[in-house]
Amino acid sequence: MRLPSIEKGGPQVHALDVRMQQERGRRLPDIVRVFLFRAEPFGEPFGRYVDRVLRGPSEWTTGERELFGAFVSARNVCRFCTTIHAAIAVEGMLGIDVNALLADWRTQDLSPRLRAALQFLDVLTLVPAKVSPESVRVLRECGVRDAGIEDLVHIATIFCTINRVADALGFLVPSPQEMARDAPRLLAQGY
Fold it and tell me: Where are the beta strands (DSSP E) in 67-173?
């Protein structure tokens, strides 16, 4: 459902939208509209959280974290987030067929560490009550430290939250051409 208040936005949303349309010939993305609509209670704190988890220090590369975001989004069947984060992961995960992995990760040739991370995210996203000490043990045996495990939990938290917002508000899915153009910049600079 597209909410008129978010579509129209306040003065800040309107000014940015006009500027983007003049500079790039397209509208302000829905995610930015939502973050600006309720900036103080939601957009700013959540944006800082996303930036810290996806771009801050981590034992996971930026490309891997984008892949994890796309993976959680695909498991939640959120086209908006899957499209965006898969395109960014393609840029950051050279040598990995991200789209094939998202379609069927269990049959892909992956490192034990990456496979264990995806298995953990799969369970955490779809049946979180089944996450167990065994789930953590498998990650540790593959060389993932506790901070890396915490990052996986934070990534699942971020994407399980924003996937629902995106789907509930009917975010417009960027075209493949838009993502091919924007993905390198989003990988390098963040959001």
Answer: none
